[in-house]
Specification:
The complex is a heterodimer of chains A (112) and B (112). With 112 residues, chain A is an all-beta fold. Chain A has strands spanning 5-7, 10-13, 19-24, 31-37, 44-50, 53-57, 65-68, 75-79, 88-95, 102-103, 107-111. In chain A, a hairpin with a 6-residue loop joins β4 and β5. Chain B has strands at residues 4-6, 9-13, 18-24, 31-37, 43-50, 55-58, 61-66, 71-76, 85-92, 101-102, 106-111.
């Protein structure tokens, strides 16, 4: 499968714990995006990378959130000191330049 | 700020046409998209239209754009049970994904 891959698919954690999600984009895609999707809503942009550079960050991305793409390939999204309001589906997408977005299946976070 | 509005549910009989409507507020929107999300899957780009077009047809899909009213619609001809999914309308002033604003999605139920 050469699509966008996200892991883990589902994470259940207790409030206050840290979690990390990983995204492996389509190999030739230089742009990588993170979105958050809550129940009954569309995806909301969080941040994006062009190669290894993080070029845009949404105001939704609080100080507890950090994203990296160290070698311009896979990316990680870490949430520190999770809160119940962080419960959501975290979607990763990649594109070749400003072309079509290809989405992964998402990582669902449940904070108890 | 920018906003994209969609009705939440649509139910049609198999073989009928489905029409999913969307309104947006950003007059600088240049790219208007329709995405499909099946259960447990990521978003998949179905089709898109540039703001200088009125209509785009792609097999069973017809997109109509009324730029004056900022109204976008997606018509699916001969709707099949496999078309049951959530359909997201999205708009962007440029093709880069970081400025794409998604609607909350319309859940399409197709009755056999």
């Amino acid at each position: 499968d050469t699509g966008v891959s996200q892991n883990p698919r589902h994470k259940i954690t207790k409030r206050g714990q840290n979690v990390t999600f990983r995204c492996d984009p389509i190999s030739e895609h230089n742009r990588l995006y993170w979105y958050r999707q809550t129940l009954g809503q569309g995806p909301e942009f969080l941040t994006y990378f062009q190669n290894e550079a993080q070029l845009e960050k949404s105001r939704l991305l609080s100080d507890r959130f950090s994203a990296e793409r160290p070698k311009g390939s896979f990316s990680t999204l870490e949430i520190q000191r999770t809160e119940q309001g962080d419960s959501a589906m975290y979607l990763c997408a990649s594109s070749r330049g400003a072309g079509e977005l290809f989405f992964g299946e998402g990582s669902r976070l449940t904070v108890l | 700020g920018e906003d994209v509005e969609q009705s939440l549910f649509l139910s049609v009989r198999e073989g009928d046409s489905s029409v999913i409507n969307c309104t947006y507020t950003d007059s600088s929107s240049t790219y208007l998209y329709w995405y499909k999300q099946e259960p447990g899957a990521g978003l998949q780009l179905l089709t898109y239209i540039f703001s200088n077009m009125d209509m785009k047809q792609d097999q069973r899909l017809t997109v109509l754009l009324n730029k004056k009213d900022k109204h976008l619609s997606l018509r699916i001809a001969d709707t099949q049970t496999g078309d049951s999914a959530i359909y997201f309308c999205a708009e962007s002033p440029d093709p880069g994904g970081f400025k794409t604003i998604f609607g909350a999605g319309t859940r399409l139920f197709v009755k056999a």
